[in-house]
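[agent] plan:
  1. take the single chain provided in the ticket
  2. run structure prediction with default settings
  3. attach structure tokens to the ticket
  4. add a short note for the reviewer (M.T.)
[agent] executing step 1
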Amino acid sequence: MKRLFLIFILLLTGIFFTGLKIQAKDIVPVTPNISSVRTVGLYQVGNDITIYKEPDENSMILYRVRWDKNDFFPQEIGENNFFTIFMPNKDLALVSATDITEDWVEIVYDNSTGATGWIKKDDPYKFMTWINFYNAYGKKYGLKLLKGAPETCKDMKASPEDEAKTISVINVPHQIKLVVVRGNWALVSVYDLDKTPKTGYIRYRSDSGVRYYFPAVK
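[agent] step 2 finished; step 3 output follows
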């Protein structure tokens, strides 16, 4: 009798866990990406995307990407390489774009290699330049320094120039508040652990486009 009862419990447990769905984890940059730097902005994608070799529906299809909050296909790319930002609970799915036309967007579909392809544009308002993205999300959430960024990125300058005087250094920031973006530089107000406000320019990206700071989207 006890054995039958144990089998019954195990069956119920199996049914319970089979019914559970594993929620996708948020994807946001944590380290500088040196594979895909020549990007012009971000594009919000749907959950069924056909990637073409050229901006022409008659050209070769490279991949058909499909995803939801629990699954991603094809696995050989993977959601961590496909998305630049993926926050399923906010319905935020953004990929990096390298070019844009009236009807097409060239996207980076594999951030680990920088491989690109073209997708048909379904809404002109789904594209954001990097400046617009930083202004929208950086000013709302602040910035974070990515792991592995050069130590010089912590230098706060009097003006947006490498040769400008260093007026302060970011140590252990409690908050990095974005004021304005100017070229490769960002004017920020920083609150370190001592809660003393510091204001100055930081180099948030390299001349080639490698981003050292990123909006702390959450």
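[agent] step 4 note for reviewer: The CA atoms of residues 46 and 198 lie 41 Å apart.
[agent] ticket updated
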